[in-house]
Amino acid sequence: MDMKWHFLVSAILAIVLFPIFGWNVLFILAGGFLIDVDHYIWYILKYKSFNLKKTYGYYSKAKIKHDYSHLKGILMLFHTYEFILIIVILSFFSEAALAFLTGLIFHWTMDVAWMKA
Q1: pLDDT by residue (tens digit) across 55-85?
Q2: 106 CB neighbour count, 10 Å cutoff
Q3: Please, which of 3, 55, 90, 100 could form a disulfide with 31 given CB 3.0 to 4.6 Å?
Q4: 97 close to 90: Cβ distance less than 8 angstroms
C-alpha cells in the first residue's frame, strides 16, 4: 500500500483517538506509518543503497501490478506475527505500546486488504 495512505489513515486515527491517548497518539503514527522502515532497511542491506526514491520505486512496482513475486523471501521484521505478539504483550503494561499496537493493526489490515484487492 502506498505510504501516503498509511500516513493519512494513521493521522486521522491519531486525531480521533487524541482524547483517549493524549500525546501517545504519536505512537499510533509510528505504528501505522513509520513501521514501514523495515522495507527501507531491507533494501539498504540487499542493494547497499540509501536511495529512498529507488527504494520506493522497487516496492511500488509490485503495488501497481499486484505482482509480489520479486518480494518473496523478504523478511519484514516489523510486519511479523512475532513482532505483533511482543507489542500485544507490551500493550498490557503501557499505554504507549497500546497506541502503537492500534496503529500497527490498522497498518497491517490495510496491507492485507491491498494485497487481496
Answers
A1: 887 777 665 555 666 667 777 888 888 999 9
A2: 19
A3: 100
A4: yes
Determine contact, residues 54/15, Cβ cutoff 8 Å: no
Q: Which one is predicted more confidently, 71 or 17?
A: 17
Helix runs in 1-117, H state only: 3-21, 25-32, 37-47, 52-65, 81-91, 95-116
In sequence order, the 6+-apart residues with CB closer than 8 A to the CB of 110 are 1, 5, 6, 9
pTM value is 0.84
4-40 b/e (C-beta count within 10 Å ≥ 16 → b): eebeebbeebbeebeeebeebbbbbbbbbbbbbebbe
Q: How many other C-beta atoms can be found within 10 angstroms of the C-beta atom of residue 68?
A: 13
> What's the burial of 59, exposed, middle or buried (CB within 10 Å: 0-12/13-18/19+)?
buried
